Amino acid sequence: MTKKSKKPDVVETVSFDEHARKDFLTGFHKRKVEKKKQRQEKAKELAKQERREARRDRLSKLSAVMPELERIEAISRGARSATGADGPKAKVSTIKQKQKVTTVTVTEMDPDDL
């Protein structure tokens, strides 16, 4: 059998800090307000992050559609310059809604021009 070494009896002392106790007991409101402020800042940061992601998505979708829009614009410019003074038959419609006005132009095009 092995003998266990006997630890010397150490007397632990507990010190009482009246100032720390008072800070703990009177600081509930302060800590509550601080937590609320941190939550608000976190929510603000999350909203900012969501706006950034939405902007990134919008720009990526626009960049994917942009070549097609440029092609359509080039075709329409070519059709306008090729029509001359007399021009082809074109129908212009204007659709008015509460917040926006949309103008639609329908032009006859020759498939050989494409």
UniProtKB/TrEMBL annotation:
<feature type="region of interest" description="Disordered">
    <location>
        <begin position="29"/>
        <end position="62"/>
    </location>
</feature>
<dbReference type="InterPro" id="IPR019186">
    <property type="entry name" value="Nucleolar_protein_12"/>
</dbReference>
<keyword id="KW-0175">Coiled coil</keyword>
<protein>
    <recommendedName>
        <fullName>Nucleolar protein 12</fullName>
    </recommendedName>
</protein>
<feature type="compositionally biased region" description="Basic and acidic residues">
    <location>
        <begin position="40"/>
        <end position="60"/>
    </location>
</feature>
<dbReference type="Pfam" id="PF09805">
    <property type="entry name" value="Nop25"/>
</dbReference>
<comment type="similarity">
    <text>Belongs to the RRP17 family.</text>
</comment>
<feature type="compositionally biased region" description="Basic residues">
    <location>
        <begin position="29"/>
        <end position="39"/>
    </location>
</feature>
<keyword id="KW-0539">Nucleus</keyword>
